[in-house]
Design a protein that fits this description.
The complex is a heterodimer. The longest helix of chain A is centred in the N-terminal third of the chain and has 17 residues. Chain A contains ten helices and 18 strands. By secondary structure, chain A is of the alpha/beta class. Chain A is about 25% helix and about 40% strand. In chain B, the strands form three sheets. Chain B has a ten-stranded mixed beta sheet with strand order 4-3-7-9-12-14-17-20-22-24. In chain B, strands 13-15-18-21-19-16 form a six-stranded parallel β-barrel. The chains are: A alpha/beta, B alpha/beta. Strand 18 of chain A pairs antiparallel with strand 24 of chain B.
C-alpha cells in the first residue's frame, strides 16, 4: 500500500507498546495504515477547502509529550475521572469506547493518526443518576513535538455534569485531540473548551458526540490561540435530544482558524441551536463550516444556526459555508450568516456619550462575543470565558 | 393521489408533441471532424473554427463535475448527434416563407410569433432545434441600431463584435459543459444595444428541442453598450421522449458603463415521467459581466422543467458601483433534481448584490441551492443580501442549501438567511374552508411563497410562470 510522503515521518514514529491490550494494538495498526494511505487532506476536499495545512506540512513533528492535569472537587461514588493511560490499565472496558470505526476507516485522517499514536488523554465516566455541580477541569500544556490526546466522556442516563478543557503552551508544537462524547438518556452535559495554545502552535480538535433520547448536550468552544487551528464538532441526535453547539473565535496577526460543525438529525423531535461569533484582526483568517443534516423520518426537527464574523483588519478574511441538507418535510430549519464591520450607528451612539473611538469599538466587540457566551448556563464559567475575551481585547491595545 | 390529480399529472406536460419535419442531422459522435462539420454547415470564418477546436481540445482533457447534488447514469457523448437543422429552402425572406409546420409548432407553444407578436409587443428570435428560424421586429430594432439576430447571422454580419466578446465572460475552458458548448454550439441569439439606447421592447427567444437524440447547444451573447438598457426573455420547452436529452447552453452578458441587462428565463423542458424516465439534462453556464461603472445585471429564473438542472447564473461585478441581482424559483417534483444557484463575485468598489432564491420540493424531488458570494480585497464597501427559502411538500423530497461566503475585505457587509418549512396545515385549512380545492389552495400558497421572484418577471412571463408552477405541482398533495 502506498504511503503518502507527509505521513511517512509519523508512520516511522510509531512504536507499538507490548504492554497494551491486543484490541488496542490491532486498532492502532489499522488506524495507522488508514492514515498512511490517506495522508493529509487537501484543499480540494470540501471539508478542508478553507483550511491551509501548509504550516503543518512544512514541519514534521517528532512525538512529544505535554503535561495533563485533571482537577475536580471531591467526587462521590459512581464517577470515574482519570487519565487515559490509567483508564487503559485499570478500566479497559471504559477506555475501549474511545475508539470507533471512523478512526479505522481513514475518512478523518487526523483522527486515524490520533488513534494510532495517542499517548494519553482524559476519561470521565458518570454512572446513572449521578449529578455533579462543580466542573471537571482538564488543563493541558505543551512545549514541543506532536501530541495526540484521546479523550472520552460517558454520561449514563439521568446524570449531569460539566467538563472544561483548557489547552495552552509555549513553543512550536502540534496538539491533536479526539474526544468521544456519549450522553445517555435524559442526561445533561455542558462541555467547554478553551483553546489558548501558544502563538507558534498548531491545534486540531475533534469532538464526536452521540446523544441518547432526551439527552441535552451543550458544547462551547473559545478559540484564542495557535497559529493554525481547527475545531470539528460532530453531533448525532437521539429522539427528542437537544444540542447547543456554540463558540467564539478571536484571532489576530497571521492566525488561521477553522470551525466545522456537523449536526446529524437521524431521529425525530430533536432540536439544535448554534451560534458562532468570529473576530478577525490584522491578517487573520477564519472559516466556519456548519452542516445541519435532517434525514428521512427525522420529523419535528427544529434547528437554527447563526454565524457572524467581524472583520477588523484590512487584510483579515473570512469564509463561511452554512449548509442545510433536509430530507424530511415537517421540520423547521434556518440558518443565518453575516460578515461585516461594527455598526456605525452603534459606534456613534457611544461616541455621542463621550466614549473614545477605541474604547467604544472594544466595548462593541466585547458585547458581540459575549452574545455567544450567553449559551453557557453556569455564571462562574461564563464569567471565566468573558474575562478571557476581555484579556484578549486588552492585549490588542 | 386522487383520480382528478392523477388525470392532471397524466396531462402534466402539455408541450410533449413532436413536430414531424425533415431535418439535416449530423451523424452521431464527437471528434474534431464533427466540430469542423458543424462549423462548415454554418459557413463560419476560420477564427471561429479555430476557437471551437481550441475548446474541443480543452474539453477532451476535462472531466464532468461531480460536486453537484445530482445523480444520473454516465452520458455517452459519442452517442449524440451534435447538429440538427430543419430542412428548408434557403433564406426565408418573411414569415410567409417559413415552413408552416414550424409555425404550427410555435402556435401550439403559444409563442406570439406572427401578428400576435405585434399585439404582445414581443420580438421573438425562435430557435428550432439548432438554427434560428425567424426573427421578427428586426427592422424596427434596426432603426435604433439594435442588433438582434441569430448567432450564426451575427458571426456573418457582425463578426468583429462577436470576436471581441465571445468567450470573454465564459472562457472556452471554464467548465466541462461550457467547453463542450464552445466546441459544438449550433446557434443561439445575439443582441447588441448601442450606447444610450433603451431597447423599446422585451426581446425574446423561445428554445425548443425537437429532434430525437440531439443535444441542444445554443449560445447567447448580449451586449449592452454604455448607458444602454435591454430586457431579454428566454423560454424553453422540449417534446416528451423516453430517452434523456442533453442541453448545454452558454449565455454571456456584458454590461458597459451605466448599462443595464435584465435576463429572464422560464425553463419548462420536459422533466421526465413520474418514475424519472426521460427528460432533459439542463447543464447550463450563464454569466454576466458588469464591466462598466454603475452597470447592472439582473437574472430572474423560473425553473420548473428538466429531469436535472445544473445552473448557476452569476455576475462578475467588475465596475465600481455595479449591481448584480438573482431571483430564482426552482421546482422539483416526481424525480426531478435541481442543483442551482448563483455566483456573485465582487471585484469593484461599492458593488452590491441581491440574491432571492425560492426552492420548492415535492414528490421525490431533490432541490439544492448552491451559491457563492465572494468579496475580493479591492471591493471596498461591497454589500450582499441573500435569502434562500425552501418549501417542502411531502416527506420523500429533499431541500438543500449550500451557500459559500468568502470575504476578503473588512468594509464588506454580507448577510445570508435561509429557512426551510412545509406548507402549514393552517394555511391549507384556511384556503379549503373558503371553498378552494386542494390543488387551487396549493397553487395559491406556492405563488405567494414565490411572489418576491415572480414580481421581477415581465408581465406576460409572470402569468405563464404562475400557471407553470401550478401545473408542475399538480398531484403533489392529496
Amino acid at each position: 500500500m502506498a504511503v503518502k510522503t507527509e505521513a511517512a515521518p509519523y508512520l516511522e514514529a510509531f512504536r507499538p507498546d507490548a504492554s497494551e491490550p491486543a484490541w488496542l494494538a490491532d486498532a492502532r495498526r489499522k488506524a495507522l495504515a488508514a492514515f498512511g494511505e490517506r495522508g493529509f487532506p487537501t484543499r480540494r476536499e470540501e471539508a478542508w477547502r478553507f483550511t491551509s495545512l501548509r504550516p503543518l506540512a512544512d514541519k514534521s513533528f517528532k512525538p512529544g509529550r505535554g503535561k495533563l492535569e485533571l482537577k475536580s472537587a471531591a467526587l462521590p461514588n459512581g464517577v470515574w475521572f482519570a487519565s487515559m493511560a490509567r483508564t487503559l490499565a485499570e478500566r479497559p472496558e471504559i477506555a475501549r469506547r474511545a475508539i470507533n470505526e471512523s478512526d479505522l476507516a481513514g475518512g478523518q485522517p487526523f483522527a486515524s493518526l490520533n488513534a494510532a499514536l495517542f499517548g494519553d488523554g482524559f476519561v470521565f465516566a458518570l454512572d446513572e443518576g449521578v449529578t455533579l455541580d462543580d466542573p471537571m477541569e482538564i488543563v493541558h500544556s505543551a512545549a514541543e513535538g506532536s501530541i495526540n490526546l484521546r479523550n472520552l466522556i460517558v454520561l449514563a442516563p439521568n446524570s449531569r455534569a460539566t467538563v472544561v478543557e483548557t489547552y495552552r503552551g509555549k513553543g512550536a508544537y502540534w496538539t491533536n485531540t479526539v474526544t468521544s462524547v456519549s450522553v445517555g438518556a435524559s442526561a445533561s452535559l455542558t462541555h467547554v473548551k478553551v483553546q489558548d495554545e501558544g502563538s507558534e502552535a498548531i491545534h486540531f480538535g475533534m469532538v464526536r458526540a452521540t446523544l441518547a433520547p432526551l439527552a441535552a448536550y451543550r458544547n462551547f468552544g473559545l478559540t484564542l490561540g495557535a497559529n493554525l487551528s481547527r475545531q470539528d464538532v460532530q453531533v448525532a441526535h437521539g429522539d427528542g435530544s437537544n444540542a447547543d453547539v456554540s463558540g467564539a473565535y478571536l484571532q489576530r496577526g497571521d492566525q488561521d482558524t477553522t470551525t466545522a460543525v456537523v449536526i446529524d438529525h437521524a431521529a425525530p423531535n430533536a432540536t439544535t441551536h448554534e451560534l458562532f461569533k468570529g473576530v478577525l484582526d490584522d491578517r487573520a483568517h477564519g472559516a466556519f463550516l456548519g452542516t445541519i443534516r435532517v434525514r428521512e423520518g427525522a420529523q419535528k426537527t427544529d434547528a437554527k444556526q447563526t454565524s457572524r464574523a467581524l472583520l477588523l483588519g484590512d487584510r483579515a478574511s473570512v469564509d463561511t459555508k452554512p449548509e442545510l441538507e433536509i430530507l424530511a418535510d415537517d421540520v423547521k430549519c434556518a440558518h443565518g450568516a453575516a460578515v461585516g464591520d461594527l455598526d456605525p450607528a452603534m459606534l456613534f451612539y457611544l461616541r455621542a456619550r463621550g466614549i473614545g473611538e477605541n474604547e467604544a469599538r472594544r466595548m462593541l466587540i466585547e458585547a458581540f462575543v459575549l452574545d455567544a457566551i450567553e449559551a453557557v448556563e453556569q455564571p462562574e464559567l461564563r464569567n471565566h470565558l468573558a474575562s478571557l475575551v476581555h484579556d484578549w481585547l486588552e492585549a490588542g491595545r | 393521489m386522487t383520480d382528478t390529480a392523477q388525470a392532471l399529472v397524466g396531462d402534466g406536460y402539455k408541450y410533449g408533441f413532436v413536430t414531424d419535419i425533415e431535418s439535416d442531422t449530423a451523424p452521431p459522435g464527437l471528434n474534431e471532424d464533427t466540430v469542423r462539420f458543424v462549423s462548415a454547415q454554418k459557413g463560419e470564418p476560420e477564427w471561429l473554427l479555430e476557437w471551437r477546436l481550441g475548446a474541443y481540445r480543452r474539453w477532451q482533457k476535462m472531466t464532468e463535475p461531480k460536486w453537484a447534488n445530482v445523480q444520473f447514469p454516465p452520458i455517452d457523448y459519442q452517442a449524440a448527434s451534435y447538429y440538427s437543422a430543419p430542412k428548408q429552402k434557403a433564406g426565408p425572406k418573411s414569415l410567409d416563407e417559413v415552413d408552416p409546420e414550424l409555425l404550427k409548432t410555435y402556435a401550439k407553444l403559444g409563442i406570439p410569433l406572427h401578428e400576435r407578436a405585434a399585439l404582445a409587443g414581443v420580438a421573438v428570435d425562435a430557435v428550432f432545434d439548432s438554427v434560428s428560424v425567424a426573427t421578427t421586429f428586426k427592422d424596427k430594432l434596426g432603426e435604433l441600431g439594435i442588433i438582434f439576430c441569430s448567432f450564426g447571422e451575427a458571426v456573418r454580419e457582425h463578426g468583429e463584435l462577436v470576436k471581441q466578446y465571445l468567450g470573454s465572460v465564459v472562457p472556452q475552458g471554464d467548465n466541462f459543459y461550457s467547453a463542450l458548448n464552445s466546441a459544438v454550439f449550433s446557434d443561439g441569439s445575439f443582441v447588441y444595444v448601442p450606447p444610450g439606447v433603451r431597447c423599446p421592447m422585451e426581446l425574446s427567444t423561445y428554445f425548443r428541442i425537437n429532434a430525437a437524440k440531439t443535444g441542444q447547444f445554443e449560445r447567447t451573447l448580449v451586449i449592452a453598450d454604455k448607458g444602454a438598457y435591454v430586457s431579454y426573455l428566454e423560454g424553453c420547452t422540449a417534446p416528451q421522449r423516453d430517452e434523456n436529452q442533453l442541453h448545454a447552453a452558454v449565455v454571456e452578458l456584458i454590461a458597459l458603463d451605466d448599462a443595464q441587462i435584465k435576463y429572464s428565463t422560464v425553463q419548462n423542458w420536459y422533466p421526465g415521467d413520474a418514475e424519472g424516465k426521460g427528460g432533459i439534462y439542463n447543464f447550463v453556464t450563464k454569466r454576466g459581466a458588469c464591466r462598466g461603472a454603475r452597470s447592472k445585471i439582473s437574472w430572474t429564473q423560473v425553473e420548473t422543467g428538466s429531469a436535472i438542472t445544473w445552473k448557476y447564473p452569476g455576475c462578475l461585478l467588475e465596475g465600481d458601483d455595479s449591481v448584480g441581482e438573482f431571483y430564482s424559483v426552482a421546482v422539483t417534483n416526481n424525480r426531478q433534481q435541481a442543483d442551482t444557484g448563483t455566483k456573485m463575485i465582487h471585484l469593484g468598489r461599492n458593488t452590491r448584490s441581491t440574491i432571492i432564491s425560492k426552492g420548492i420540493s415535492a414528490g421525490k424531488g431533490q432541490n439544492t441551492y448552491r451559491g457563492l458570494v465572494r468579496v475580493q480585497p479591492k471591493a471596498a464597501n461591497a454589500r450582499n443580501y441573500t435569502q434562500c427559502d425552501s418549501l417542502l411538500i411531502g416527506d420523500r423530497c429533499g431541500a438543500h442549501t449550500v451557500p459559500y461566503i468568502e470575504v476578503r475585505n473588512p468594509s464588506a457587509t454580507v448577510e445570508h438567511e435561509a429557512t426551510t418549512s412545509k406548507i402549514s396545515e393552517d394555511q391549507m385549512f384556511y384556503c379549503r374552508s373558503r371553498g378552494l380545492s386542494q390543488e387551487d389552495a396549493l397553487g395559491l400558497i406556492v405563488n405567494g411563497f414565490c411572489k418576491e421572484v415572480l414580481k421581477e418577471l415581465p408581465m406576460e412571463f409572470a402569468v405563464e410562470a404562475q400557471k407553470l408552477l401550478s401545473v408542475s405541482l399538480e398531484g403533489s398533495v392529496g
